[in-house]
What does this fold into?
Amino acid sequence: MSDNGRRRVVVTGLGMVTPLGNTVEDSWSALIAGESGAGKITQFDSTGFPVDFACEVKDLEVTDYVEYKASRRMDRFTHLALAAARQAEADAKLDIAPEADRIGAAVATGIGGLKSFEACIQVLDERGPDRVNPFSIVQIIPNLAAGWVSMELGTKGPLLSECTACAASNMAIGDGLDAIRLGRADVMICGGTEAPVSRVGIAGFGAMRAISRRNGDPKAASRPFDLERDGFVMGEAAAMVVLEELEHANARGAKIYAELLGYGLSSDATHVSDPDPTGESPARALQMAFDDARITPDQVGYVNAHGTSTPIGDAAETRVIKLALGEEKAYATPVSSTKGATGHCLGAAGAVEASFTILALERGVLPPTINQEVPDPECDLDYIPNESREEQVEIGVSNSFGFGGHNACVVFKRWGTHGSPPSPLLQVSDPDERA
It folds into this structure.
């Protein structure tokens, strides 16, 4: 089951809470139907804010996943993480306790406990330092979502927490891939979480002019690759994938969704928020992922784009895809941004979009880029506008690019349906032998 001496890694479980639904199936069904998760903000009074809408998780019963007393010691970003992790654990049918030291977790976030930070500052200012919640720090710090996932599920293997803005959860998935390949774990629960719909989150990103101001039509506000896009829509979510060494998965009869073939990353060294204008640095992350996966660009059948709906970012990513695939192949490859439906979930975005990519491969349906209506000459690829497409592809890639110049790409391969073996993969053992 090894790949030229390298341990193979497969996906055996998924969990997800998003603005589209509080389960994988609900989120996927809404995505494929072309729905939007955007609406008026409910978590605080947005009167006087330049933006009064977001993509919120709705009606989540936190106590379905964690005891009430413990939940009060956590920020919302941890609540979301635990919901997704519990779902993924159940979907994979994991029995963690007997081999806890061989099962790890990598849970990313871009910001951490922003709402708890706000609450702490408010109490400090209004009531003084003696009245600050003693759990404030462990609610705020970004690694505690990973910590709580480990404690609640009982994992004792590697425990990691990336905090690299919008690339964070793709990097967490890459961390899980590396941990299994290196023999440090047999199973890794990987993903990301974010809960930035707060006064500071909306005010701060609004001041940057990064988020859309279509207050009159929230559901049409996130419009990746559309000429009339004016910024992203703030989103919150969590998603987890269970990564497992192939022989371990087969030995316990696990369902396999897909194989995780490769991972690549790079840095721009350009700007705190704008992407590399040449596209060369992000394209290197894609090429590294292809090399790691031992595939050629011609084998890519679908790209889940970072596609945030910002004027600069979407045009830049179009250049990246052309550089990485070659122009002819780029024009022939379906691309979509699911952020049209979910908004931009920051540190959770990569895991949400990796999960959608896995489901697209498994189910033979490519998700749409909703609200992509007015062509932009700078964004001229096949973005699967507005309606999902039935098309079976073998290999899909998912891009994530973060503030500070973090670039990460993951590559998945279709495993087949109902437990059937994977279709043959055209590959060579030595990347240097590729034409």
Remarks:
- Residues 9-420 form a domain with the Peroxisomal Thiolase; Chain A, domain 1 fold (CATH 3.40.47.10).
- The longest strand covers residues 258-267.
- The two ends are 27 Å apart (CA to CA).
- DSSP finds 14 helices and 14 strands in the chain.
